[in-house]
Amino acid sequence: MQLNPKKTKTYIKSALRDQHLKEAVDRATQSALKKRQDKVDLMPYWEDMRWQAHKAKAGVIDHLDRYLEEFEANCMANGTTVHWAVDGEEARKIIIDLIRKNNVKSIVKAKSLTTEEIYLNHFLVDQGLEVLETDLGEYIVQLLDQIPSHLTSPALHLTRKDVGKIFHEKLGVPYTEDPPELAQIARQKLREKFLAADMGISGVNFAIADSGSFCIVENEANAHLAVTMPRIHVAVMGIEKIVPTLPATAAFLKLQAISTTGQKQSSYVNFVGGPTRQKFGEGCEEVHLVLLDNGRSTILADPQLRETLFCFRCGACLNNCPIYQQVGGHAYGWVYMGPIGISLLPQYLGVDEGRYAPFTSSLCGACYEICPMRINIPHHLLKLRNRVVDSGYSMKVEKWAMWGFGFLASRPWLYRLLTWFPGKFQKLMPGNRAFPAPGYGKERALGRMDLKGFRKRFKEMS
Ligand code: SF4
């Protein structure tokens, strides 16, 4: 399923009509938020950790060129082959060349949003290859030919009943909605594929500059199998994933685990430090690392929005976002969704394709409040809105509305008259009905207007 960010209005409308989706997303996000909060409450130093991580990441991003060179040199010293890809097309070409050169027929994948970003699965399948997602959530959405609906919980929009039906229909197994039984079914289907695969493809959570190793964080051990059982391991990472040292990585791992799943620590943290089969008799014979730019260096060059590169895709801002909670991830029409997704979309895909994205936010600040990296997403969204408008994409009605507001605001007598009128009109409305607002008022209740008004209150206060 390929989504189109330009169709986001259509997706949002259809998501708002889908009660089943709302219930599934609401249940999953509320449970994730509670688990996270329970852990945060046990950590009086949580706020300090967030600011320290923010500072550390700022230091890396400000000198990314130097850290990338250090990382590359150490990777090569470890025996990892490093490839640089300026965009998705180049990354796909690097990978297909490796596949052809090594006569690869079947591939197992560990969850990777970066590979989703470059549409790798569809590309490889179109080349006649067998590509299997091995993370349980990814496996489920792959069976449905969907993209993930959350950064860390790909099948968050589905209930266990849905999964039972999907397995029954797609895999021909008897219906069950028991989670351990469902996991067992997936495990049996996947295990033989791990053994037969020629290549494992993964993403990278953190790349450690001073050791030339990188880590892959997971909870199911599927990534461990995917990167150690096949002969060749290809990892795809965005160039912003660098951290300076191993001790610095520990703080990021903790912040990420708590923010993602409310765990003190993720169940498995795999460190990959090059090919190991010859030396230890296990692991890969070849490790290839594709360093993907795909628009990141443009963001890096932008001091106003550079902070968006601090994101390590924990998904907490999605869980806490009142918009995401209503519509889920597919409504955004792109692989990165929620508050961070709509800040990245116009930066990665350009203002034309991403012009609606920065407006799909209430700017309530819930994302900034929860982000473990302290990324000021509402601030970035405002900047992006400015850019969309400066590029000439604002709606005519909006332009007129702004012009009208300027006209009124500079004529206090007219402003007073027109703000007096709706208050009187509201008095005529029966019972306790809220002020009617077409469209907007359909999905939420607007409160009654305060008849006293700001100017009267201000006078009273001063
Ligand atoms: S913006 Fe912050 S909260 Fe959202 S996914 Fe990135 S790190 Fe997590």
Give, in spatial order, the strands making up the sheet with the most strands.
1-10-7-4-2-3
Sheet having the most strands? 6 strands, parallel
Unreliable parts: none
The general outline is globular
CATH topological fold name of one domain: Rossmann fold
Which ligands are bound?
Answer: iron/sulfur cluster
Mean pLDDT: 92
CATH class of one domain: Alpha Beta
Q: What share of the residues lie within helices?
A: 40-55%
Write down how many β-strands occur, each being a DSSP E stretch of 2 or more residues.
10
Structural class of the helix and strand makeup?
alpha/beta
Enumerate how many helices there are, as a single number.
23
The proportion of strand residues reads 5-15%
CATH architecture of one domain: 3-Layer(aba) Sandwich
The Rg value, from CA coordinates, equals: 25 Å
Task: Let me know the CATH homologous superfamily of one domain.
Answer: NagB/RpiA/CoA transferase-like
Report the end-to-end length measured between terminal Cα atoms: 59 Å
